[in-house]
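Per reviewer request, we include the raw input and output of the structure prediction for the construct analysed in the revised manuscript.
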Amino acid sequence: MTAQQLKTNALNNTLGAALLLFGALLSCARLATATEHVFGLWNLYGAEALGMLPATGLAAARLLQSLTLDPAGAASVALQFLLSCWPVAAIFLGAILLRRNFAQALAIPSMQSGPSGDARENRSGLRGERS
């Protein structure tokens, strides 16, 4: 490998790991916030919070109706949903940057055949014995 390739691989490793960590931390923070809101609602209303489930279902049905009747609004909602998932996109981008280097690190070294053409080797690198 040339110096330029090594520098590019090191930069990809660093950037990929940073994006992976950043996306994971943001996703974890968003999940923690959502969980906190749900439990806050439960603590505030107690058992009465279960009565909000039918209202939530009706609101979802109304949203579905308005999305089917207004295609431009559906595209806008889809765009807002995708933008709210951007930490997951950062995780995917980091994984893509790290993909090649992980594949090289996990690659099994090829077994080289000995003088007799026997390619069997044991873990210590010695040729396997024939039985």
